Amino acid sequence: MTEAYVHGYHAKENERLRDQAGALVDLLHSDTHYPAGSRVLEVGCGVGAQTITLAQRSPEARFTSIDISEASLAQAAERLTRAGCTNVAFQRADIFALPFGAAAFDHVFVCFVLEHLARPVQALALLHRQLRPGGTITVIEGDHGSTYFHPDSAAAHAAIQCQVALQRTAGGNALIGRQVYPLLVAAGFSAVRVSPRMVYVDSSRPHLVDGFTRKTFTAMIEGVRAPAIAAGLIEAERFDAGIRDLYRTAEADGVFCYTFFKGVGEATVSS
Ligand SMILES: C[S@@+](CC[C@H](N)C(=O)[O-])C[C@H]1O[C@@H](n2cnc3c(N)ncnc32)[C@H](O)[C@@H]1O
Q1: How far is the CA of 109 from the centre of ligand 1 (A)?
Q2: Cβ(46) – ligand 1 distance below 6 Å
Q3: Rounded to the nearest 10 degrees, what angle do helices 154-169 and 236-248 cross at?
Q4: Which label site among 54, 175, 179, 209 has the fewest CB atoms less than 10 Å from its CB?
């Protein structure tokens, strides 16, 4: 993967992930709660944008939050300390070389990570081994193909396609949300259930206009301007027109829709 646009490593991107998490807390997390004493592995915690919600909503569960990036982990730890959370241990680790024993956890939580991996089924199969039989995995991913808006704009769709193409070139998949069910099944999970979580934004929901349409989605697409133009995917003028049109959807008569997919599966006894 190139670092130019892999999410999570740059200051602006970290700010975007925090805005995203703030705007979407209820939509994504309202039904995530871990019992007292349960051991939860959060994979790819980044700067802790989801960690803080997980830890606060399940204050008596014990979280181990891992990431491959030392810098992100440091920010996450600082953030959780500032919030007074004491139920999270941070550790640097690679999903593909986890330092824990088999069945070390009751639950695994993965959010916006599979989209960056070239081998998501292998990653999920390795996470399956970390769970005790009957333990659960929760996976949340977006899908840029679920994006539609008013006023519609071919230039805006073209700018979004640049992000999709660049992520594909980096080995990831910005359209992975629609695959959460088959990926979990292929990795050996049972009782898999996926629920689509649609973000619907119009100007009667000002916190989402700002927190999602502007600062999350459009900021993410805007962030690929330089690599998209450098790769010859689009002309600068067309890309800029697309970004203008995405911001246009955040005006009083604009509407923006996007769907996340949240899947939950159980580890089978034979894991
Ligand atoms: C888009 S960020 C998501 C962060 C966080 N889960 C959130 O929802 O805000 C993806 C994270 O996955 C981490 N990551 C990518 N590949 C990884 C790997 N092989 N092992 C562990 N973490 C990884 C990145 O460092 C990054 O922090």
Answers
A1: 12
A2: yes
A3: 110
A4: 175
